[in-house]
Design brief:
The protein is mostly helical and about 110 residues long. It has one domain. The protein is about 60% helix and about 0% strand. Helix 1 packs across helix 2 and helix 2 runs antiparallel to helix 4. The relative contact order is 0.18. The model has no long low-confidence stretch (mean pLDDT about 90).
Length: about 110
């Protein structure tokens, strides 16, 4: 939960670097919250209202942590635009998000592992 809150606190910070743990824990908690909201919607008979609101509220933090994650592996945040390419772009981004950090400092800042 600490990683999730850390990303929300830095919701509009696109510079710097984010560790794999920070990115994937935010992704995990977001997925769990979305599933819970979907279940609540189906019980209450709502039409995706809760998940839509949650998705809009976490759009900027998702983009920011994604850009910082790409920075950690030495890539520009503009690589996030690959998600506009159906299927293949998403696969490439997942691979980039799974790459290990560059050792030491890079052009985006200091190593967050240190």
């Amino acid at each position: 939960m600490e990683w999730y809150l850390k990303v929300l606190k830095n919701y509009a910070v696109f510079n710097g670097r984010a560790r794999r743990t920070e990115y994937w824990m935010f992704f995990l908690f977001s997925a769990i919250i979305s599933i819970i909201l979907s279940i609540l919607q189906s019980i209450a008979g709502l039409d995706n209202v809760l998940t839509l609101i949650y998705g809009l509220l976490t759009l900027l933090p998702n983009l920011a942590v994604g850009a910082r994650r790409l920075h950690d592996s030495g890539k520009s945040g503009w690589w996030l635009l690959l998600c506009l390419i159906p299927f293949i772009g998403t696969i490439i981004l997942i691979v980039f998000f799974c790459l290990d950090s560059e050792e030491g400092d890079n052009r985006f800042g200091g190593n967050p592992k240190e």
